[in-house]
Amino acid sequence: MAEHTSSSITIEAAPAEVMSVIADFARYPEWTGEVKEAEVLATDPAGRAEKVRLLLDAGAIKDDHTLAYTWTGDNEVSWTLVKSQMLRALDGSYRLAPTAGGTATEVTYQLTVDVKIPMLGMIKRKAEKVIIDRALAGLKKRVESGK
Question: What is the pTM of this model?
Answer without folding.
Answer: 0.86
